[in-house]
TrEMBL record:
Its main location: membrane. Belongs to the MIP/aquaporin (TC 1.A.8) family. The keyword Membrane applies. PANTHER family: AQUAPORIN TRANSPORTER (PTHR19139), MIP17260P (PTHR19139:SF199). The chain crosses the membrane at residues 37-56, 77-99, 130-148, 160-181, 201-221. InterPro entries: Aquaporin-like, Aquaporin_transptr, MIP, MIP_CS. Keywords: Cell membrane, Membrane, Transmembrane, Transmembrane helix, Transport. The lineage of its organism: Bacteria, Pseudomonadati, Pseudomonadota, Alphaproteobacteria, Rhodobacterales. It is a multi-pass membrane protein. This is Aquaporin. PROSITE patterns: MIP (PS00221). It comes from Paracoccus fistulariae.
Length: 230
Protein backbone atom coordinates (compact mmCIF):
# COMPACT_ATOMS: atom_id res chain seq x y z
CA UNK A 1 0.00 0.00 0.00
CA UNK A 2 1.38 3.42 -0.95
CA UNK A 3 2.00 6.11 1.64
CA UNK A 4 -0.92 8.14 0.26
CA UNK A 5 -3.29 5.19 0.44
CA UNK A 6 -2.13 4.38 3.98
CA UNK A 7 -2.63 8.00 5.01
CA UNK A 8 -6.18 7.96 3.63
CA UNK A 9 -6.88 4.63 5.35
CA UNK A 10 -5.66 5.82 8.76
CA UNK A 11 -7.15 9.29 8.37
CA UNK A 12 -10.58 7.89 7.54
CA UNK A 13 -10.22 5.45 10.43
CA UNK A 14 -9.68 8.46 12.71
CA UNK A 15 -12.75 10.22 11.31
CA UNK A 16 -15.06 7.25 11.83
CA UNK A 17 -13.53 6.16 15.14
CA UNK A 18 -13.89 9.64 16.67
CA UNK A 19 -17.16 10.63 15.04
CA UNK A 20 -19.18 7.44 14.84
CA UNK A 21 -17.53 6.17 18.02
CA UNK A 22 -18.72 9.22 19.93
CA UNK A 23 -22.29 8.57 18.77
CA UNK A 24 -22.25 4.86 19.63
CA UNK A 25 -20.25 4.89 22.86
CA UNK A 26 -21.01 8.31 24.33
CA UNK A 27 -24.06 9.63 22.50
CA UNK A 28 -26.35 9.57 25.51
CA UNK A 29 -23.82 11.48 27.61
CA UNK A 30 -22.62 14.13 25.15
CA UNK A 31 -25.65 14.57 22.90
CA UNK A 32 -25.71 15.99 19.37
CA UNK A 33 -23.42 18.88 20.25
CA UNK A 34 -20.71 16.57 21.52
CA UNK A 35 -21.00 14.30 18.50
CA UNK A 36 -20.73 17.30 16.17
CA UNK A 37 -17.58 18.42 17.95
CA UNK A 38 -16.09 14.92 17.77
CA UNK A 39 -16.54 14.80 14.00
CA UNK A 40 -14.99 18.24 13.63
CA UNK A 41 -12.03 17.43 15.86
CA UNK A 42 -11.42 14.20 13.95
CA UNK A 43 -10.97 16.16 10.74
CA UNK A 44 -8.59 18.59 12.42
CA UNK A 45 -6.53 15.70 13.79
CA UNK A 46 -6.37 13.85 10.48
CA UNK A 47 -5.73 16.98 8.42
CA UNK A 48 -2.71 18.03 10.47
CA UNK A 49 -1.52 14.46 10.87
CA UNK A 50 -1.81 13.30 7.26
CA UNK A 51 -2.56 16.34 5.10
CA UNK A 52 1.07 16.69 4.06
CA UNK A 53 1.06 13.09 2.76
CA UNK A 54 -2.24 12.66 0.92
CA UNK A 55 -4.19 15.85 1.49
CA UNK A 56 -6.31 14.02 4.09
CA UNK A 57 -9.39 13.89 1.89
CA UNK A 58 -10.93 10.99 3.88
CA UNK A 59 -14.09 11.03 1.80
CA UNK A 60 -14.97 9.79 -1.72
CA UNK A 61 -17.13 12.90 -2.27
CA UNK A 62 -14.18 15.14 -1.44
CA UNK A 63 -11.89 13.09 -3.69
CA UNK A 64 -14.46 13.39 -6.49
CA UNK A 65 -14.39 17.16 -6.03
CA UNK A 66 -10.60 17.12 -6.36
CA UNK A 67 -10.86 14.88 -9.43
CA UNK A 68 -13.40 17.06 -11.26
CA UNK A 69 -11.53 20.24 -10.36
CA UNK A 70 -8.39 18.83 -11.95
CA UNK A 71 -6.41 18.43 -8.73
CA UNK A 72 -6.46 14.61 -8.57
CA UNK A 73 -5.90 11.95 -11.23
CA UNK A 74 -8.37 9.14 -11.90
CA UNK A 75 -5.85 6.56 -10.68
CA UNK A 76 -5.37 8.44 -7.41
CA UNK A 77 -9.13 8.89 -7.04
CA UNK A 78 -9.74 5.15 -7.25
CA UNK A 79 -6.94 4.34 -4.80
CA UNK A 80 -8.14 7.01 -2.37
CA UNK A 81 -11.74 5.77 -2.46
CA UNK A 82 -10.77 2.16 -1.76
CA UNK A 83 -8.48 3.21 1.10
CA UNK A 84 -11.15 5.49 2.57
CA UNK A 85 -13.85 2.83 2.51
CA UNK A 86 -11.55 0.19 4.01
CA UNK A 87 -10.43 2.60 6.73
CA UNK A 88 -14.04 3.39 7.59
CA UNK A 89 -14.98 -0.30 7.73
CA UNK A 90 -12.03 -1.07 9.99
CA UNK A 91 -13.00 1.72 12.38
CA UNK A 92 -16.65 0.62 12.44
CA UNK A 93 -15.48 -2.91 13.23
CA UNK A 94 -13.39 -1.70 16.16
CA UNK A 95 -16.29 0.39 17.48
CA UNK A 96 -18.58 -2.63 17.24
CA UNK A 97 -16.16 -4.81 19.19
CA UNK A 98 -15.85 -2.16 21.92
CA UNK A 99 -19.61 -1.55 22.08
CA UNK A 100 -20.26 -5.29 22.30
CA UNK A 101 -18.37 -5.34 25.58
CA UNK A 102 -21.28 -3.57 27.27
CA UNK A 103 -23.85 -5.98 28.63
CA UNK A 104 -26.94 -4.14 27.37
CA UNK A 105 -25.62 -3.28 23.90
CA UNK A 106 -27.47 -4.71 20.92
CA UNK A 107 -26.59 -4.02 17.30
CA UNK A 108 -30.27 -4.32 16.36
CA UNK A 109 -31.52 -2.04 19.13
CA UNK A 110 -28.65 0.44 19.48
CA UNK A 111 -27.24 0.45 15.96
CA UNK A 112 -23.74 1.54 14.99
CA UNK A 113 -24.15 5.21 14.20
CA UNK A 114 -25.65 4.49 10.78
CA UNK A 115 -27.26 7.23 8.70
CA UNK A 116 -30.93 7.22 7.84
CA UNK A 117 -34.19 9.09 7.57
CA UNK A 118 -37.92 8.61 8.10
CA UNK A 119 -40.09 7.45 10.96
CA UNK A 120 -38.09 6.15 13.90
CA UNK A 121 -34.85 7.82 12.88
CA UNK A 122 -33.90 10.91 14.91
CA UNK A 123 -36.24 13.75 13.85
CA UNK A 124 -38.24 11.61 11.44
CA UNK A 125 -37.47 13.78 8.39
CA UNK A 126 -38.63 12.45 5.03
CA UNK A 127 -36.67 11.37 1.96
CA UNK A 128 -36.75 14.80 0.30
CA UNK A 129 -35.36 16.49 3.40
CA UNK A 130 -32.58 13.93 3.67
CA UNK A 131 -31.69 14.20 -0.02
CA UNK A 132 -31.61 17.99 -0.04
CA UNK A 133 -29.62 18.22 3.17
CA UNK A 134 -26.96 15.72 2.10
CA UNK A 135 -26.53 17.30 -1.34
CA UNK A 136 -26.36 20.89 -0.12
CA UNK A 137 -24.20 20.12 2.92
CA UNK A 138 -21.70 18.11 0.88
CA UNK A 139 -21.53 20.80 -1.80
CA UNK A 140 -20.74 23.42 0.82
CA UNK A 141 -18.28 21.16 2.63
CA UNK A 142 -16.30 20.27 -0.50
CA UNK A 143 -16.36 23.89 -1.68
CA UNK A 144 -14.78 24.96 1.61
CA UNK A 145 -12.19 22.17 1.39
CA UNK A 146 -11.17 23.08 -2.16
CA UNK A 147 -10.88 26.73 -1.20
CA UNK A 148 -9.02 26.11 2.06
CA UNK A 149 -6.45 23.89 0.34
CA UNK A 150 -5.78 25.93 -2.81
CA UNK A 151 -2.26 27.19 -3.27
CA UNK A 152 -2.84 30.77 -2.09
CA UNK A 153 -4.97 29.92 0.95
CA UNK A 154 -3.58 31.02 4.35
CA UNK A 155 -0.98 28.50 5.40
CA UNK A 156 -1.68 26.30 8.40
CA UNK A 157 -5.38 27.04 8.77
CA UNK A 158 -6.94 24.63 6.27
CA UNK A 159 -7.47 21.78 8.73
CA UNK A 160 -9.08 24.08 11.26
CA UNK A 161 -11.44 25.64 8.70
CA UNK A 162 -12.46 22.23 7.39
CA UNK A 163 -12.98 20.77 10.87
CA UNK A 164 -15.11 23.72 11.98
CA UNK A 165 -17.18 23.46 8.80
CA UNK A 166 -17.90 19.78 9.46
CA UNK A 167 -18.86 20.64 13.04
CA UNK A 168 -21.30 23.26 11.77
CA UNK A 169 -22.79 20.82 9.27
CA UNK A 170 -23.40 18.32 12.06
CA UNK A 171 -25.01 20.96 14.26
CA UNK A 172 -27.47 21.62 11.44
CA UNK A 173 -28.15 18.11 10.22
CA UNK A 174 -27.67 15.38 12.83
CA UNK A 175 -31.39 15.33 13.52
CA UNK A 176 -32.12 15.01 9.80
CA UNK A 177 -29.87 12.16 8.64
CA UNK A 178 -27.21 11.71 11.30
CA UNK A 179 -25.01 13.52 8.74
CA UNK A 180 -23.11 11.59 6.13
CA UNK A 181 -21.60 14.00 3.55
CA UNK A 182 -19.23 11.05 3.11
CA UNK A 183 -20.10 7.73 1.43
CA UNK A 184 -17.31 5.88 3.27
CA UNK A 185 -18.63 7.03 6.64
CA UNK A 186 -22.10 5.70 5.69
CA UNK A 187 -21.06 2.46 4.03
CA UNK A 188 -19.10 1.18 7.03
CA UNK A 189 -21.80 1.05 9.74
CA UNK A 190 -24.48 0.03 7.22
CA UNK A 191 -22.51 -3.11 6.37
CA UNK A 192 -22.61 -4.17 10.02
CA UNK A 193 -26.20 -3.12 10.76
CA UNK A 194 -27.83 -4.28 7.50
CA UNK A 195 -31.60 -3.99 7.08
CA UNK A 196 -32.90 -0.46 6.69
CA UNK A 197 -29.41 1.02 6.89
CA UNK A 198 -28.45 -0.90 3.74
CA UNK A 199 -31.75 -0.11 2.03
CA UNK A 200 -31.24 3.62 2.55
CA UNK A 201 -27.51 3.61 1.82
CA UNK A 202 -28.00 4.63 -1.81
CA UNK A 203 -28.90 8.17 -0.74
CA UNK A 204 -25.74 8.54 1.34
CA UNK A 205 -23.67 7.53 -1.66
CA UNK A 206 -25.52 9.40 -4.42
CA UNK A 207 -26.25 12.74 -2.73
CA UNK A 208 -22.74 13.35 -1.33
CA UNK A 209 -21.12 12.34 -4.62
CA UNK A 210 -23.43 14.71 -6.52
CA UNK A 211 -22.61 17.54 -4.10
CA UNK A 212 -18.88 16.86 -4.36
CA UNK A 213 -19.10 16.67 -8.15
CA UNK A 214 -20.78 20.07 -8.41
CA UNK A 215 -18.29 21.66 -6.02
CA UNK A 216 -15.40 20.30 -8.06
CA UNK A 217 -16.84 21.46 -11.38
CA UNK A 218 -17.42 24.99 -10.11
CA UNK A 219 -13.97 25.16 -8.54
CA UNK A 220 -12.33 23.82 -11.68
CA UNK A 221 -14.17 26.40 -13.77
CA UNK A 222 -12.84 29.17 -11.56
CA UNK A 223 -16.26 30.15 -10.17
CA UNK A 224 -15.42 29.29 -6.54
CA UNK A 225 -11.65 29.50 -6.90
CA UNK A 226 -9.33 32.35 -6.04
CA UNK A 227 -8.54 34.38 -9.19
CA UNK A 228 -4.85 34.16 -8.27
CA UNK A 229 -4.83 30.33 -8.63
CA UNK A 230 -4.29 28.94 -12.11
Amino acid sequence: MSSKAMAEFIGTFILVFFGVGSAVLMGAEIGFHGIALAFGLSIVAAAYGFGVISGAQLNPAVSLGFLTSGRLSMAEFLVYCVAQILGAIAAAGVIYVIASGKADYSLVENGLGQNGWGAGYNGGYNLNSALIFEFVATFLFVTVILGATQSDAPLGFGGLAIGLTLTGIHLVGIDVTGVSVNPARSIAPALFVGGQAMEQLWLFIAAPLAGGLLAGVLHGAGITRSPHVR
